[in-house]
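Quick one from the shared queue. A colleague (R.T.) flagged DNA-binding MurR/RpiR family transcriptional regulator as missing a structural entry in our internal table.

Convert sequence to structure tokens.
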Amino acid sequence: MSKRILKLVQSDDLRRSKSDKLLAHYIERNIADLPFETARSIAQRLQLSPMTVGRYLRRMGFDGLDELKNELRHGSANPAWQVKGRFEGLEQDRQEGKLLAGLIQQQIDNLTQIYGVVQSPEWQKTIDALIGATEVYVAAYQNVRGVAQYFASQLSYTRPRVQFVDGLNGTYSELLDGSVEGRLLFLHDVRRFAAKARPLAQEARRAGVKVVLLTDEFCPWGPEVSDICLIVPGSHGPLWDGAATMTAVMDLMLSNIIVVLGEEVNERVETLTRLQDIFGDFEA
């Protein structure tokens, strides 16, 4: 990727709207695949219109994707690192300790952005919804699935009737059968977005299930398909997207719930601890 193109897609002028950010990050992370793409295929992947992609390319200064491809062919590129990396001489930086220091600082910068999230009205609505629901169903996909499973497991220590749903039954009937009122779907999805996430949220709302979506700033459809959309700043790590920020957000949610529920959580933990002792899953 030429330095000029990298500078363009990282500029504030080309990251103003959600669609801008989606396209900028897609170009950064998928530069090696662009020769095989069309404006229509990119639009389909990002759930945008081809016209939106075309306008973005013109703002970059290219009359279509072919012109961008042509510059890439004639520019010096090292997609494996230039796509996400902003280091030159990575091995030297590693040896001097600069690489890890930069990564640590980036994690710190990402975490400091959480303060704005927890001060938002959507945060309190999310906490209230997680406490007040009759049943909570947690869903996530692909590389964020494990983080959401962790959240569901920890949430089950604070309140009853929490379940992670994987959709392997092909119907999500445990969530969507309408047998219990007051259900909540806590859906976690970040870029690149899972194909099932959006239709699951839409179907849940049709079934009368409240939907809380925890997502990142690159999601263009979140508010449309959810009752509460909690948007966390997207990961901007120099090498790849990490889960530290989202995990921290979920831990803060759990802490907030524990503070609100107070003694109820203590009683539930005591009950679960007694059951754990009976069934012997943990060492003394």
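The two ends are 56 Å apart (CA to CA).
The first helix runs from residue 3 to 9.
Added to the table.
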